[in-house]
From TrEMBL:
PANTHER family tied to this protein: DUF4283 DOMAIN-CONTAINING PROTEIN, GLYCINE-RICH CELL WALL STRUCTURAL PROTEIN 1.8-LIKE
Protein's organism: Rehmannia glutinosa
PROSITE patterns, A to Z: ZF_CCHC
Keyword Zinc carried by entry: yes
InterPro entries to which the protein is assigned, alphabetical: At4g02000-like, DUF4283, Zn_knuckle_CX2CX4HX4C, Znf_CCHC
The name this protein goes by in its record: CCHC-type domain-containing protein
Pfam families membership: DUF4283 (PF14111), zf-CCHC_4 (PF14392)
Alphabetically ordered keywords of this record: Metal-binding, Zinc, Zinc-finger
Domain CCHC-type: 169-184
Amino acid sequence: MACEVLEGLKRFSLSEAEIVGVEIDEGDIVKSIWELGHNLFQFVFHEIEDKDKVFNNRVWSFDNQYLILREWVENMDVNEMDFSKMAIWIQIWNIPNHWISSEAGLKVGGLFTEVQDVFIPDSGIVKGRCIKLLALIDLAKPLLRGTHIRLGGVKWWVNFKYENLMGFCFYCGFIGHIERGCNQMNDDLKINVLKEGEFGEWLKAEESSFLHKGEN
């Protein structure tokens, strides 16, 4: 749309008022939230510290749905913004105690799009019993339920649990809808081939309130 307008301007004979234009200051922009499209909003921060605080917390939700944040840059085209990835805290369970380390967590985290943080909890009921990852996941794929890890010829299955998991379909394993809005489930119902039990409540982390690294 912006390109079409610019092309049109090349054919116009602009008046003096159109050429001079109007200059506005950042202080003139007082609205904090702008709706840019369907489920697409722009948040305006007047202090850089406020914006940094929001982005540093990284995982946000509203009305039981994830809020995927992207930092605005000058001349950004909202139609080209990628919202297919989101950050979420993941707990890796069923690891033998002598295998638990941040380095092992990073290697397991390689299954996800990107690992942003990794540490071993030192408080709460999960102290020393799992590895925590803050990782980017691909919303175009079902959640990973776990994986095999190997050490010295020994093969071991580890489970993934997701903190504050919401808007999740326990039929197809995708984030973004629940069972009653699942197209795959509706299609399988039509041919009577329901595949139940592939995903379940066991993917939800039971405890997510213990401190993350760097919090106090």
